[in-house]
Amino acid sequence: MKVDIHIHTNYSKDGMSGIKEMALVAIKRGMNAIAIIDHSSIEGWEEAKKVSKELNFPIILGDEIYSKQGDIIGLFLKEKIQGKKKEARFVMEEIKKQGGVVIIPHAFHGQLSFKEDLTNYLDLIDGIEVINGRRPSNGPDQKALEFAKKHNLAMTGGTDAHCAQAVGDAYTECEANNLEEFKDAIINKKTFAKGKKSNLIYILAPTLAKLGLKKHN
User: Alpha carbon of 190 to those of 129, 174, 211: distances in Å?
Assistant: First the structure.
């Protein structure tokens, strides 16, 4: 399977594109599924379920959660993680309680870096994002790759797309036939990051979205 697991829709304050548009682009680009992880929000989940059924295209429900130490992606969630700027360990434990998986995105990318030693959380982390399509520098991704290999963590890739045009540029790949097998592949550290950096112009998408330039299905 090829899955872009880092997508922000217009349900995020800085997301431009609607869920259906993003799903259609993903299908066109050969993705087998996507994950919707709007910033500390699950408002798009119901629409995601409808789009998934309409297009017969799997969509993972998730959330990119702000913690005091940095952003944390929770995939395969059932409900919102309550509270803003909670301790990272609390957030990770809450994700696990829901049967979800814990991914650390853009772990070494400047201001977006995780603000504490990640080795303190190895008992809870399932994977590290080793390709972030929206951040132009390759150095931090390489550092994340080395960290994942050293500590036997799943290697994941995602576009961090805030507009449909970037969807599918970077993705997570593994041997799987459905979302349950994909989830198991992450847990069992059998995933790989593939793809490329998105066009630099898409870095502007969050700013444009905040200015009100949003699309709707």
Answer: 14, 6, 40
Residue 203 CB partners (closer than 8 Å, separation 6+): 134, 136
Give the ranges where 62-178 is alpha helix by DSSP (H): 88-97, 139-150
A 10 A CB-CB count for 172 gives 30
| 56 contacts: CB under 8 Å, gap ≥ 6 | none
Q: Which of 99, 98, 100, 81 is nearest to 90 (CA)?
A: 81
171, amino acid identity: Y
Least confident of 42-46, 48-52, 206-210: 206-210
- Specify the pairing of strand 59-66 against strand 33-36: parallel
For residue 13, pLDDT beyond 60: yes
Q: How far apart are CA 73 and CA 39, in angstroms?
A: 9
- pLDDT(190) > 60: yes
Single out the residue of 58, 26, 11, 39 nearest to residue 164, CA to CA: 26
| Average pLDDT of the residues in 189-199 | 96
